[in-house]
Amino acid sequence: MNHPKDSHLNTIALAETALTQISTHGQPADPKSFELWYRFATGKSGLLSAAINSRLERSGTLTRKVTLIISNRSTTPTATWSAIACCGS
Known about the structure:
By secondary structure, the protein is an all-alpha fold. It has helices spanning about 5-25, 30-40, 45-60, 65-75, 75-85. Helix 3 packs antiparallel against helix 4 (about 65-75). The two termini are about 25 Å apart.
């Protein structure tokens, strides 16, 4: 069983990784960028990781436009509703 403090520390580490990626790639630290890089940091979406890694291997950088396209393509209504159901009310 996970201790609440372990979960807290794990999410802090993921958030720090997301912020590092944002800084490294010159992205704005707005909620949409943070969400994208946080999901990338979790490693739970192979498709998201593949899209970002592929783009970085090809061009060495990510533009804001490209990150928005990747973000929009990797966000599904099901995932959004699952997050709401999990954390809502």
